[in-house]
Amino acid sequence: MADIDAAAKHPSIAPQHLAPRKFRDDSANSLTQCITSYAKLCGSFASRLNNTGIYRNGKYTRSTSRRGLPDVLITRNGQSLFIEVKTGRDRMSKYQEAVRDDQQKSGGLYFVAHDFSSFKQWFDNLT
Questions:
Q1: Quick check: is 110 in a domain?
Q2: What is the overall mean pLDDT for the chain?
Q3: CATH number of domain containing 96
Q4: What is the arithmetic mean of pLDDT over 21-27?
Q5: How far apart are CA 123 and CA 127, in angstroms?
Q6: Total domain count for the chain?
Q7: Contact between residue 18 and residue 7 where contact means Cβ atoms under 8 Å apart
């Protein structure tokens, strides 16, 4: 899908001269990229959230975002989807669980992605 999209965006370049798009899901960053790219290719809005603080002038400044927000926000057919990316031994914090509960209470969907295959299956089966 990504290769077809790239060819459509660059019609003046022969498809065989475009670099093939490669995706991996063996780290949190690469899995997050897979998820956002796939959602966009399916016509959804998708954005990665960066909730980490900043280290500047010798001090760590916490983010002003609400603690526990997900890694990816997606809107698909008017439905709000929160995706939390967890790889390896990473587990959800109490703040992430609170955000999950709030999202689900308000009618949104929440998914914890451990790999791309399970995310794709869940995403493709949404009505």
A1: yes
A2: 89
A3: 3.40.1350.10
A4: 79
A5: 9
A6: 1
A7: yes
Domain that residue 110 falls in: 24-124
- Tell me, yes or no, whether 19 lies in a domain: no
Mean pLDDT, rounded, for 54-75: 88
Residue 12 lies in a domain: no
Give the global pTM. Answer: 0.81
What pLDDT is stored for residue 61 in this prediction?
Answer: 83
The 3-state secondary structure of 21-81, one letter per residue: CCCCCCCHHHHHHHHHHHHHHCCCEEEECCCCCEEECCEEECCCCCCCCCCEEEEECCEEE
Mean pLDDT computed over 9-15: 78
Would 6 be classed as within a structural domain?
Answer: no
As given in the structure block, the two tokens for residue 97 are 């669980």
Q: Is 11 helix (H, G, I), strand (E, B) or coil?
A: coil
Spatial strand order of the sheet with 72-76 comes to 45-48, 72-76, 79-85, 109-113
So what's the pLDDT on residue 9?
73
